[in-house]
Specification:
The structure holds two protein chains of two kinds. Chain A is α+β, with helices and mostly antiparallel strands. Chain A is built from eight helices and 19 strands. In chain A, 29% of the residues lie in helices and 39% in strands. Chain A is elongated. Chain B is an alpha+beta fold. The chains are: A alpha+beta, B alpha+beta.
């Protein structure tokens, strides 16, 4: 039994050589005294070798006196003896502890910071921002509050729409997604004009503030003034500048080119479902595998069922795997064109 | 008197279908191929060499003959002998 062997190793045992004429009597006495003996080997006519635990060996001494045998230790084995050996080699033990400590210490540091996905904002800029809240190379990774770094970056840099901070081993990965800056909001106090964005025919114009320049039925070009912010006051000679505001409706045309392949791959669910089960404890999952997934193309659907609520997040996840089949669909070219025509007409109408 | 007691025990265990090794304190010998013998309910070793091992028990002396045998484990109740076992005999 391996378990017993390991237990014996940790308890420590000795290989003893017993010399005498009445060895059977010795063995019987040892057994009645509850001394655990194993691997008893007869070596010669008057000698046997056996293994005994260290605590059993002390008890053996009494029997030895009664029977009249001689016992000497051949070998000491096990963990306690190894420790004794180490005691005489203190520096070795200390070195070993230091070595393990050093490994733990060095792996708990951040050695490298990687910035991914930045284009407009330079990596140095991001690193210097992180440096301000003491996140830099060489700090202990357990002290980093990733959500704090995340929020700080989102707060300080307007270009970021998404920031993910992750610690992988000794590496800190900062993943960002950039976006265009939102247009500047013109405050209601600043005077301005309203101009046409596109070419079109004016249908309706309502000026809430300012004065409308064009009328219904007018054709306007791009950039043409629609509502002016300069209003003349009859009482005063001077013109008043206002923040123009209003609604202008115009008929305009949006054209869009949609390219459609003549042959198209369509993914369709076949209706075949294969379920696998997974036991999740916290973030870690143990999948209970029931063979391989028999489909080549599939989508995974997850359904989590909580077994027990409370602090421990233990849940069984049922993964449904839906089979997908690719279908070739060939469209007729003529019908394709017709469709496009219909689309265009629809767009014109809107 | 003792014989009567034994007979009574035997009958009881027969009627109730109880294992006789427990009721009558008889040895139970388990052989695994010809490489291992387990004798439970033994009453001590009489002889121990590589070729012959004699073990005392309530139903007489059990003599195990073989080659390169050694006692793997010996406990109060059990003894495990490992080696090339050739025969097992009861000596009364």
């Amino acid at each position: 039994m391996l378990v017993i062997k390991i237990w014996n190793y940790f308890q420590g045992y000795v290989i003893i050589r017993i010399e005498g004429l009445t060895l059977e009597k010795f063995l019987n006495l040892a057994v009645t005294k509850d001394i655990y003996l194993w691997d008893i080997n007869r070596i010669g006519y008057t000698t046997i070798e056996a293994k005994v635990r260290t605590n059993g060996f002390k008890l053996l001494k009494e029997i030895v006196k009664n029977v009249g045998c001689r016992v000497n230790i051949v070998e000491k084995k096990g963990f306690p003896f190894l420790l004794n050996k180490l005691k005489s080699r203190k520096m070795f033990a200390i070195g070993f502890v230091i070595f393990i400590g050093l490994i733990f210490f060095l792996t708990s540091l951040i050695w490298n910071i990687e910035v991914l996905g930045n284009d407009k904002v330079s990596s140095e800029n991001i690193l210097s921002l992180m440096d301000e809240i003491d996140v830099k190379e060489g700090i202990i990774k357990y002290r980093i509050d990733t959500s704090l770094v995340k929020n700080m970056l989102l707060d300080k840099v307007d270009y970021f729409s998404f920031v993910n901070v992750e610690i992988k081993g000794t590496k800190l990965i900062v993943e960002v997604k950039e976006r265009d800056l939102p247009p500047e909001i013109v405050t209601k106090d600043t005077p301005c004009n309203i101009v046409a964005k596109k070419k079109g025919v004016i249908e309706k114009i309502i000026a809430r503030n300012g004065k409308s320049v064009v009328e219904k039925g007018d054709i306007v070009r791009k950039g043409q003034l629609l509502i002016t912010g300069i209003t003349a006051d009859e009482m005063l000679d001077k013109n008043i500048l206002v923040h123009s505001d209003g609604e202008v409706l115009a008929i305009t045309r949006y054209s869009e080119i949609v390219e459609e392949p003549i042959e198209k791959m369509l993914k369709k669910e076949t209706g075949n479902v294969y379920t696998t089960r997974e036991l999740k404890i916290g973030d870690k999952g143990i999948s209970i595998v029931e063979g391989e997934i028999p489909f080549e193309n599939y989508i995974e659907e997850e359904k989590a069922k909580k077994i027990k609520d409370g602090e421990k997040k233990t849940s069984e996840v049922k993964e449904k795997i839906l089979e997908q089949q690719e279908e070739n669909k060939t469209k007729k070219v003529s019908s394709n064109q017709e469709e496009n025509k219909v689309k265009q007409i629809k767009e014109r109408n809107t | 008197m003792k014989d009567n007691m034994e007979k009574f025990k035997y009958n009881i265990s027969d009627i109730l279908e109880l294992p006789k090794d427990i009721m009558m304190d008889l040895p139970k010998i388990t052989l695994i191929g010809s490489i291992q013998v387990l004798i439970s309910n033994h009453k001590g070793i009489i002889e121990y060499t590589k070729e012959v091992i004699r073990v005392n028990s309530n139903s007489g002396v059990i003599k195990v003959v073989g080659k390169d045998m050694y006692i793997k484990i010996i406990l109060v109740e059990e003894i495990i002998i490992v080696g090339n076992i050739e025969k097992i005999e009861f000596l009364n």
